[in-house]
Structure formats: structure tokens, C-alpha cells
Amino acid sequence: MADSNILCKPSRLAALGLAIAGLVAVAPPCLNAASSTSKSQESLEAISSNRDSSQIELASEWGLTLEDWSRYQAVMKGPRGIYSPGLDPLTTLGIEATSAEDRRRYAELQVKAERQRVEKELAYQQAYDQAFKRLYPDEKIIQLSASPASPMISSPRALKSDGRLAIFVQDNCMACVTRIQNLQAQNQPFDLYFVGSQGNDEMIRRWAVLARIEPTRVLSRAITLNHDAGRWQGLGLGGELPAVVREVDGQWQRQ
Fold first, then answer.
1. Cα dihedral value 51, 55, 58, 64, nearest 10
2. In CATH, what number is assigned to the domain containing residue 183?
């Protein structure tokens, strides 16, 4: 019986062995948790690093610092983002600048950026015009509503209104391009009058393409393209271009 009891009861040494084995068995989950936490931290750091790199790249494209870019994002989350959704960073920061020095810096950056953009677009436009002429030599990219020799141009220069807007623009005027694009985005019909065209149809066509005027809207006459032929001066409203005007109670007024 004594031998049987010895066989049935585990020795202290065996118990100690089981305890050690238990510790070994429990240890790996703890190590796995620590390893998982470390990997999560590394993953978060990698995401943060990639985000920072992306933000720095976006800021540099506009000539801005990361601090400038962060402010732009913060500003667009406020009222400015509601008033002017999609407004570019330089214009946004310039409008919301808190000092004359910052306002001047953003203005200079925007002038440089706009110059580069226009140069690229004009270069591409020339290539586009050449390709269009090669492929469709007998067609016009954008058809003007009337030529300088037509009765509409040679007749009295007073505007005729049917409730539509009339907008007067000129060459080398980025504000004119912006205003045209805004009117198109609003699906607003209008008659465009190009001041200083001197009867040059191609000048208006090139400008219309640069301003991204939709040819389908010109064909449907939702938008008409016209030579100014002295109309703007005849209105006597004064002020800089662009000028959006509408007839109200028989009088043309800037809008």
C-alpha cells in the first residue's frame, strides 16, 4: 500500500516541475501581446509619417510651409469653407491673413503660381489648336455668335436685354476667367463681350478655350461670344473688368 501511495501522489519535485511548465505555457500570450502592441505603435508611426510626408508635398506644390498648410485646412473647416468651397490655398490664406506681411507674401506666391499655370495652359492650348486644325481643318473650335461684319455688330451699339446677364471681359485678366467659370458653375446663361478684340475672332476663341467655356453651351446659345465694339464704353458704368451687368427698370447696372 505504501508503494501504491507513493505512485499515486506527485512528489514535490514533480509539482514544482508542473508549476514551471505552467509558467512557461502562460508566458507566450504575454509576449505576444507586447509584440502586438509594438507592431501597432510602429504601424501608427508609419501612417503618421506617411501623412506628414503627404502634407509636406501638398504644401510645397503651392510654395507653402507645413504650418501654412495646416492653417489652410483649419480655415476651410470654418466659415470660409462654407462661403467659398474649393477655394485654392493661396487665395484662402491671403484673404484670411492676419498681417499685411503675410497678405503680401501670399499674394506674391499666387502671382507666381498663376503665371506658371497660364504659361502651361497656353502652351497646351497652342498644341490643341494645331491638332484641331490638322484633324478638322474646316471647323472652328468655338463659333462666335456674330462676326464684326454682321448687322448685329455694325448696328447701334446699345445692348439689347431679355433679362440675361452681360459680362464684359478682356485679355490678360485672370479675374475675368474666374468670373466666367463661376457663372458656368451656376449654370447661368450670359452674353460675353470681349473688350479690345478689335474684330479678331481668333483672339476670342483662344480666350474662350482658356476660360474653359463649354462649346456645347455656346452652340445652344446659353452662352454667346461677342466683340464688344464699344458697348462697354457706351454704358458709361466705369470700373475695372470683369463687369457683370443686367438691365433693371430700363437701366444697366453692375451686378
1. -170
2. 3.40.30
pLDDT score of 69: 95
Please give the model's pTM, rounded to 2 decimal places. 0.48
CA distance 4 to 7: 5
Which structural domain range is residue 40 located in? 11-61
Taking the C-alpha atoms of residue 240 and residue 231, their distance in angstroms, rounded to an integer, is: 15
Least confident stretch, 20-24, 34-38, 166-170, 215-219: 20-24
Indicate if 118 and 89 belong to the same structural domain: yes
Provide the residue type at 162 as one letter.
Answer: D
Residue 15 lies in a domain: yes
How far is residue 121's CA from residue 77's CA, in Å, rounded to a whole number? Answer: 31
Does 158 share its domain with 248? yes
Read off the pLDDT of residues 50-72 as tens digits, 9 standing for 90 and up: 667 788 898 999 999 999 999 99
Are residues 54 and 129 located together in one domain of the fold? no
Separation between Cα atoms, residue 53 and residue 56, nearest integer Å: 5
Written as one letter, the residue type at 254 is: R
Same domain, 157 and 247: yes
CA 128 → CA 131, 135, 140, 210, distances in Å?
Answer: 5, 11, 12, 11
The answer as to whether 187 is a domain residue is: yes
The closest alpha carbon to 241, from 174, 162, 142, belongs to: 174
Structural domain count of the chain: 3
Strand positions, DSSP E, 100-170? 165-169
